[in-house]
Write a structure and sequence with these properties.
With 418 residues, this protein is α+β, with helices and mostly antiparallel strands. The chain folds into two domains: 5-214 and 334-416, Zn peptidases (Aminopeptidase, 3-Layer(aba) Sandwich); 216-325, Alpha-Beta Plaits (2-Layer Sandwich). Helices cover 35% and strands 21% of the residues. The protein is built from twelve helices and 16 strands. It has helices at residues 5-16, 33-48, 95-110, 139-142, 148-154, 163-169, 200-204, 242-259, 297-318, 339-351, 366-370, 397-416; strands at 20-21, 25-26, 52-55, 61-64, 76-82, 119-124, 187-195, 208-214, 216-225, 266-268, 272-275, 285-294, 321-325, 335-336, 356-361, 375-381. The strands form three sheets. Strands 3, 4, 5, 6, 7, 8, 14, 15 and 16 form a nine-stranded mixed β-sheet that branches. Strands 9, 10, 11, 12 and 13 form a five-stranded antiparallel β-sheet that branches. Strand 1 (20-21) and strand 2 (25-26) form a beta hairpin. Helix 3 crosses helix 12, helix 8 runs antiparallel to helix 9 (297-318) and helix 10 crosses helix 12 (397-416). The chain binds zinc ion. Residues 82, 93-94, 127, 194 line the site of zinc ion.
Length: 418
């Protein structure tokens, strides 16, 4: 049983032409015209592979293998990812997990191979954050962690259109979002293959990473209030420059996270809004994002503690008002993946003679929420130069084939076992 490289490549290229930007870029923002066209393409491919396709009230797509399944009423072995993209991404993020899952089905079909449990390929809707400012909008309802408030008030795009209204406008049924929840009894386990989105695999020359845990993120905002005065007339000694204060925080975030780098912790201040933002006025207010991620809780907490200390120090030494909230945008512990499923992935790699490493995931994935209702495992394939969420995103077909081989071995094992 071997993945078919031509089949995988054809899917990647054909889907990559939908929403194409420039040479290699792709833009399929959640539930835009191009995202809808991409979904239609994949539904057609699922049907061609003999899968029974259903779409839940919030737009998640499920393709179930029924025909060659001994008992289709048993819990499914689920495999998949997402196909929506950031503003301009590439052809691989998310896509490789969906096409890899579909390829596993086609490999089994090629051999007319039966399984005891059904295999279900899933395409989660709305995984990317770009359009509605929040990620995982398909998987959260599936695990029962969605609310009307999220759908109507929190997930809103820049034009003020809510996710709720968007779902309704494309013929879905947001009012039935609670029906999207899958019972733990309907799923045996969930596998997700994804591009690494970092440089590690390429750097050490391995084709597959078996994921041990997914980092949890603690996110929040800080606002630093200074005095906006004339940059020419106001003397240095009397200034309260909010951007100068914010700069100290930015540097401390970097230093604190570097002290914990050996444990895989990372810290980022990715967004600064400076007011009034005028060349000849001293910055009067800065709003900044705060994000710390890691798979080691004490390590993550040390970075947060160092930042807290720095906030007080800067507030005192500059006599300024600083307000900060760490957890208002989420505070997730690391998501632990299933040890036995992980062992099956490793076993599968060994059987195929594929060199792999075990590694954590720094980025978040639908897989982390699936841990709330079922056993979950994940694997990575290399991202050339560590690039993702950009048009240059690239994974070689040979690595997609190796990743799919490893995935197929573990999926088959689970789908056959009791
Ligand atoms: Zn992704």
């Amino acid at each position: 049983m071997r993945p078919n490289p031509g089949r995988i490549e054809r899917n990647i290229e054909e889907l990559g032409r939908i929403g194409k930007v420039g040479e290699t870029g792709v833009s399929r923002l959640t539930f835009t015209k191009d995202d809808l066209a991409g979904r239609e393409y994949m539904i057609e491919e699922m049907r061609r592979a003999g899968l029974e396709v259903t779409i839940d009230p919030v737009g998640n797509i499920f393709g179930k293998r029924v025909e060659l399944t001994e008992d289709p009423s048993l819990p499914s072995v689920m495999v998949g990812s997402h196909i929506d993209t950031p503003l301009v991404g590439g052809k691989y993020d998310g896509v490789v997990g969906v096409i890899g899952g579909l390829e596993v089905v086609r490999m089994l079909n090629d051999e007319r191979m039966k399984t005891r449990h059904p295999i279900e390929v899933v395409i989660f809707a709305g995984e990317e954050l770009t359009r509605f400012g929040s990620s995982f909008k398909g998987s959260l309802p599936v695990v029962g962690s969605c609310t009307e408030k999220l759908l109507k008030e929190v997930w809103v795009d820049k034009q003020g259109v809510s996710y709720w209204d968007t779902l309704a406008s494309v013929g879905l049924k947001p009012e039935e979002f609670e029906k999207a929840k899958r019972s733990p009894e309907s799923i045996k386990c969930y596998f997700e293959m994804h591009i690494e989105q970092g440089p590690v695999l390429e750097d050490i020359g391995k084709s597959v990473g078996v994921v041990s845990a997914i980092a949890g993120a603690t996110r929040g905002w800080a606002t630093i209030k200074g005095l906006p005065n004339h940059s020419g007339a106001f003397p240095m000694r009397l200034r309260k420059d909010a951007l100068a204060a914010a700069s100290e925080i930015v540097l401390e975030m970097e230093a604190a996270a570097r002290r914990e780098a050996h444990l895989g912790t990372v810290g980022t201040i990715g967004d600064l809004v400076v007011k009034p933002g005028v060349m000849n006025i001293i910055p009067g207010e800065v709003t900044m994002s705060l994000e710390v991620r890691g798979v080691d809780i004490p390590s993550k907490n040390r970075v947060l503690e160092d930042l807290r200390r720095k906030f007080s120090e800067v507030a005192a030494s500059r006599n300024m008002d600083i307000q900060y909230h760490y957890n208002n945008l989420g505070d997730d512990d690391p998501f632990v993946l299933d040890g036995e499923l992980r062992a099956f992935l490793e076993e599968s790699a060994k059987q195929e003679g594929i060199d792999y490493i075990v590694m954590p995931s720094g980025a978040g994935h639908d897989a982390m929420f699936m841990t709330r209702i079922t056993r979950v495992a994940m694997l990575f394939v290399p991202s050339v130069a560590g690039k993702s969420h950009v048009p240059e995103e690239f994974t070689e077909t040979k690595d997609l084939v190796l990743g799919t081989s490893v995935l197929a071995g573990a999926v088959l094992k689970m789908a056959r076992s009791r």
